[in-house]
């Protein structure tokens, strides 16, 4: 009997290079789009470290290598975001950056739909105000 292999979102996206592109575009948009200035101001002047952390987190979150967990342990997303005022505006600004970045990464519509839903649920869970 033939074994059925289910692809992870990481594999469906195309692995490391497309994920790196997604994260880089996310932060490029955050750094330049005036609509998300309040979100940008929550971050330090140098986005390099946080780019790497998001890449590492998303790698494991999407079913690829668990880079974040190997370095930092359990993500504890809500606890890590607690020092920041994450309200609906911050959530929506984050999603604007991510959805716009996703426009530039080729993917099947089913994967896009899945990721939009997953990103929304996760971003909404980060709200603490």
Automatic annotation (TrEMBL):
<comment type="similarity">
    <text>Belongs to the truncated hemoglobin family. Group II subfamily.</text>
</comment>
<dbReference type="GO" id="GO:0020037">
    <property type="term" value="F:heme binding"/>
</dbReference>
<dbReference type="InterPro" id="IPR001486">
    <property type="entry name" value="Hemoglobin_trunc"/>
</dbReference>
<dbReference type="InterPro" id="IPR012292">
    <property type="entry name" value="Globin/Proto"/>
</dbReference>
<dbReference type="InterPro" id="IPR009050">
    <property type="entry name" value="Globin-like_sf"/>
</dbReference>
<keyword id="KW-0408">Iron</keyword>
<dbReference type="Pfam" id="PF01152">
    <property type="entry name" value="Bac_globin"/>
</dbReference>
<dbReference type="GO" id="GO:0019825">
    <property type="term" value="F:oxygen binding"/>
</dbReference>
<dbReference type="GO" id="GO:0046872">
    <property type="term" value="F:metal ion binding"/>
</dbReference>
<dbReference type="InterPro" id="IPR044203">
    <property type="entry name" value="GlbO/GLB3-like"/>
</dbReference>
<keyword id="KW-0349">Heme</keyword>
<keyword id="KW-0479">Metal-binding</keyword>
<keyword id="KW-0813">Transport</keyword>
<protein>
    <submittedName>
        <fullName>Hemoglobin</fullName>
    </submittedName>
</protein>
<dbReference type="GO" id="GO:0005344">
    <property type="term" value="F:oxygen carrier activity"/>
</dbReference>
């Amino acid at each position: 009997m033939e074994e059925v292999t289910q692809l992870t979102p990481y594999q469906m996206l195309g692995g490391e290079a497309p994920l790196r592109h997604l994260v880089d575009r996310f932060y490029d948009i955050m750094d330049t789009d005036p609509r998300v200035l309040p979100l940008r101001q929550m971050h330090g002047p140098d986005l390099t470290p946080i780019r790497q952390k998001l890449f590492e987190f998303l790698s494991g979150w999407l079913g690829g290598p668990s880079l974040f967990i190997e370095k930092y342990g359990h993500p504890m997303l809500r606890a890590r975001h607690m020092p920041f005022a994450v309200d609906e505006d911050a959530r929506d600004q984050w999603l604007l950056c991510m959805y716009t970045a996703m426009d530039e990464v080729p993917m099947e519509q089913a994967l896009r739909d899945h990721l939009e839903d997953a990103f929304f649920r996760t971003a909404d869970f980060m709200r603490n105000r």
